Amino acid sequence: MRIDCPMCGSRDRREYYYQGGAVMLARPAPDAGEAAWDDYLHLRENPAGETEELWQHDGGCGAWLVVTRDTVSHEISNVALAEDVKRAMRKAS
Amino acid sequence: MVELIQISPCAGLLPITLGSVTLDEQDVGRLTSLSPFGDASDLSAALEKAHGCTWPKPNRSTGKDGGRCIWFGRDEALLIGPAPDMGLAKHGAVVDQSDAWAVVSLAGPGAVDVLARLVPVDLRDAAFKRGHTVRTQVMHMNASITKLGTDHLMIMVFRSMAGTLVYDLKGAMAAVASRG
Question: Which tens digit of pLDDT belongs to each residue from B129-175?
Fold first, then answer.
């Protein structure tokens, strides 16, 4: 398995660390309520299909990445810097 | 006062020559981590004025022996050689890391074949030219590898891993040499 790091280029999976679903980028407001926080901290989707995940290129440039991966075929359709994704989310809100 | 004796990270371990490849420690002078505050353009200008090398693009290095700047990760570069001009601190974080890294050179025909056994990146001349640099792994150690010329590479790992680096490279050198 190889991941196309936006900074370093195509690299072997061993250089990366897997964190989990990319939901961590969408932190609820402090007063969002118990349900929203419970969801954010504990509940995760488990789709058979396309999913967004956070990976860190810790054996390379050190950047956090949002990787769009199909859990059925393992095909990776998109890789973006988490920094850019978060910036776009801020701009949109 | 206690008299402290300075020893280099690979003291007593190097040099080693096996087959056509030689592994030796490099004394490169000062190592300084640079991280720009925001955009790197001001830092690049200050760097060029003081040390004659610009801010490197990802996977590239600038300058030459005695004043080299290598890309060292996201928004980070390493100035190798000179003591940093303190004017740089206006445009970015300047951190001395001289004692934190073990720096070795691997040179001779077949040096790339040795690293091919340990590093998951194509380091042959066709893909990795003089002045190119990568952050990657040597076995399980995070490393920085820079090509100084054909069959001549500079490898850096954390100082605490100097012994492991020499052990792993020695094993790979012996394996390549035994193939003749």
Answer: 999 999 999 999 999 999 999 999 999 999 999 999 999 999 999 99
What's the whole-number mean pLDDT along residues A61-66?
96
Please check whether residue B145 is in contact with residue B119, taking contact to mean a CB–CB distance below 8 angstroms.
yes
List, in order of start, the domains of chain B with CATH numbers. Answer: 16-27+99-178 (3.30.1360.120), 30-96 (3.30.70.1520)
Residue ranges in B2-132 assigned as alpha helix (H): 41-51, 111-116
Enumerate the β-bridge partners of residue A54: A20, A66
Q: pLDDT value at position B180?
A: 67
Q: How many CB pairs below 8 Å do chains A and B form together?
A: 37
Give residue B148's Cα distance to chain centre.
10
Q: ipTM for the complex?
A: 0.86
Of B58, B59, B137, the CB nearest to A14: B137
